[in-house]
Known about the structure:
The structure holds two protein chains of two kinds.
Chain A: H1 3-13, H2 18-27, E1 41-44, H3 50-61, E2 65-70, E3 86-87, E4 90-91, H4 92-96, E5 101-105, H5 111-123, E6 126-129, H6 135-138, H7 143-149, E7 154-159, H8 166-170, H9 178-184, H10 211-234, E8 238-243, H11 247-252, H12 254-262, E9 279-283, E10 288-292, H13 296-305, H14 318-321, H15 326-340, H16 345-361, E11 371-374, H17 378-383, H18 385-389, E12 393-398, E13 402-407, E14 412-413, H19 431-439
Parallel strand pairs in A: 1-2, 1-6, 2-5, 6-7, 7-8
Antiparallel strand pairs in A: 3-4, 9-10, 10-11, 12-13
Helix pairs in contact in A: 1-2, 3-10
Chain B: H1 4-12, E1 28-32, H2 37-47, E2 51-56, H3 79-85, E3 89-92, H4 98-109, E4 113-116, H5 122-126, H6 130-136, E5 141-146, H7 161-168, H8 189-212, E6 216-221, H9 222-227, H10 232-239, E7 256-260, E8 266-270, H11 274-283, H12 287-292, H13 296-300, H14 302-317, H15 321-331, E9 334-337, H16 341-346, H17 348-353, E10 356-361, E11 365-370, E12 375-376, H18 394-400, H19 406-414
Helix pairs in contact in B: 2-8, 11-15
Amino acid sequence: MSDKEKEQILVRYGGSGKEREIFLKGMMNPDGKAEVLDDAVILDVSYANLSGDICSSIYAEFGAEVIKIEPPEGDPSRKITPYGVNRNGVGVPFIMEARNKRYMTLDLREEAGREEFKKLAKKAHVIIETYEPGKMDFWGIGYRQLSEINPGLVYIAISPYGQYGKKAQEFIGIPDSDITAQAASGLPANIGDMPGEGEPWNWPLRAGVWLGWYISGVEAALGGAIARYYTRATGEGQMVDVATADSYVSLVGYPVTIGFTWDKARPRIGKHDFAIYPYGFWKSKDGIVAIAAGRDHDFRALLKVLNLWKHEDDFRFTFDRIPDILTQIEAFYKIIEEQTTKYTSGELVKKALDYSIKSARSKWRGGGVPIIMEVQKPATARQNPHWNKRRSFQEFDDEMLGKFTMPVNFIKMSESPPRVKWVKCGIGQDNTYVREKYLE
Amino acid sequence: MENYFDYTKKIFDPAKTKEKPEVFKGLRVLDFTHVVYGPTAAKILGQYGAEVIKFELPWVGDLWRFGVYWGNFWRHSSVCFHFVQYGKYFFALNLKLPKAKEIILKMAEKADVVIENFAAGTTDTWGIGYSQLSKANPGIIYLSCATYGQYGPMRFFPGWDLLAQAASGAIALTGYPGTDKYYKLPDYVGDFFPGNIGALAVIMALNYRNKTGKGQYIDLAQGEALMRILPNFTYESITNEDLGRVGNTDPTMAPSGIFKSCDGKFVAVAAATDEQYKGICEAMGRPDLVNKYKDTFERLKAGNAQELIDATSKWVGSSNVDNLVELAKKHHFAIAQVEDDYEITHDEWRQERGSVIVFTDEMYGKLMIPGPSQMLSKTPGRIKWLARPLGYHNRYILKTILGYSDEEIKQLEKERVIGNWDDRPGIKPPVYYDIDKDPMFNYK
Lengths: 440, 444
């Protein structure tokens, strides 16, 4: 083996030190690498529900040919956007999820549209739909019918309460939205201030991120990927069912196990955490910092960093610090706050880091790692050189959509990473392309 | 033709799950993870049939074994640990010793996936990183989970769910604008969600390996996984404005929000489309509003949306939840009551669906735990057993995978290469359980 070959192998497999860094640096750029789903054709007929678009986006980022099928007037999801902000009639979330896709119009309400859809479905590997349960079946293009003509088909259906069971039937006429998915899955019930804070602070509060729809979309993509893996092995397709009112519950699990073992609901406890303390935010002189020092030695280190050692005796063990006595922990919160507000966020971060480095180097490894970080807004996270070095964002410039930025490359893989090649979403822009390629 | 719901009930029937095949049967996952983020990725592979071997330090154990809510252990274990770790094999091996490294390298030759979530580069220093294990097994898929990833100036920064939320900006989006009150996303979702992305990445890599025979390295940054789901960056690049916190409504739909009904319950209401908007206006007896805001984008503008939110708030406040749900069924707009833990636990439909399972475990008895987030008709995910005490499967692993003899195992125990628990709750078996009679723990 020549030296050059040896070096190449080292670079490919990581090595340590310098080699590892070169290897990792190469992983930050997905261009030119393989696309794992480049042989998959995926039809996305999601309607007024972006969890379907999110699911198909993920497949498109891994290289699948995703054909988004909309009615001639366009999917209403195009208009689901914060404060109506749009570019040429396309809202922000829809732009976000218009990654590497083909856009085709077909009217599934008409017999002719459904016939054409059937022909496409015969050649597809995955179908994603978000209509009310049974609607596609009623149209003759549900899993039951399509699996007859395409036994290897993976059919993903996303709806508020799933495709089977009493609740799904009973609530069939009620459409989906992110905020209702959140509400039904126990998310707002656990966000908000303590009971004594007064209205509306103590109300259940919506999470400011689309956790209902994004988690459902990702769980659907995960289910579809698992089903496709089975198809590759056996040739058999199957149906994948995601309920948006439920996917968060199953993802985090807490509402169920805590509800069962406590036989009551958790109260809302504001900025505190149920298992770890300190684990939350504190004000600094010029902003907000997040502090996590859960383990006992981390906590001791934090006390040293903040000159609070005199309280060590009262809060020595994890179980002294858990907020089951809320008044006690509120009082302690204020004690910490008195110290954090004396310093700027930057000073606090530096103090904690300096201590951590010292304790990591010391022979006595019980020094603890108190973590203090500045709370970033998306705008400041965008500027973080760390993410820029990792190419986490990409600028796009499109005739119709103009200039904009998007978070991309969300998984770094050495051989077959996801990537965004284009963002374009004119209604019916790829009608000819799709028909020529798949229907002739 | 058979009724649609009879048909779906038949193909998804949770009672038949056990009879159905497992997708990842025969795949072996070495799980060097702890707490929530990494373990979740491994758990999902296990849910669908992979053999997941969880490595822990003997007499120490995963930190999350002690991660209990308000200090309450349940049968000497943590319920929060159970649902992150179910269906795994628990192997307590002292990584610091050279003999342990030998065992890991031998196991890596027979494994398909490795998952770890230590600080960036730690496993490489220990000699069990991708650079070392991929030499023993070039087909290996190696997933490294870290808050900031393996590359970049902040790679060595420590992180938890909270810090990932802080680094991505997701933390600053919940709450009311113009206040100094911030709220983190609850339930460590900043760990669970990226963990699911990790499982997705591994499955994609498995697909690639099936096609080409090549393994690969995956560098997953928690922060990036969370940033992927924020439209805020795009919003800000288009408007030059910070979307920030938006209170208890969803600014992408008008009207929308969480409101209080006259019976004191909270209910979320939203109109995602023009049709739904028309429906909600009719339901609240305000047909005048339909024509006032015909244009969707016009309707979503802050001031206009506020008018609709106020009208909705007044209407919800004068009605009870049952009545509102009936109206929603008739007029087709989105509605859901805000459910808390207790209500979710008592929802019949979730258990009927199989997404919430009352599981009876041989060691721990009855516990309600979450099922899979996605239901697959032919190869559904499942749970086989809850978490186990530290080092519970030591003998089983060493005998079945590496073919060690009783003498060799005894020697390893003597040298403290393998071990199990001390007297702390979280790592030991429940008091009532007779571990000496347990056939798995004493595997012959």
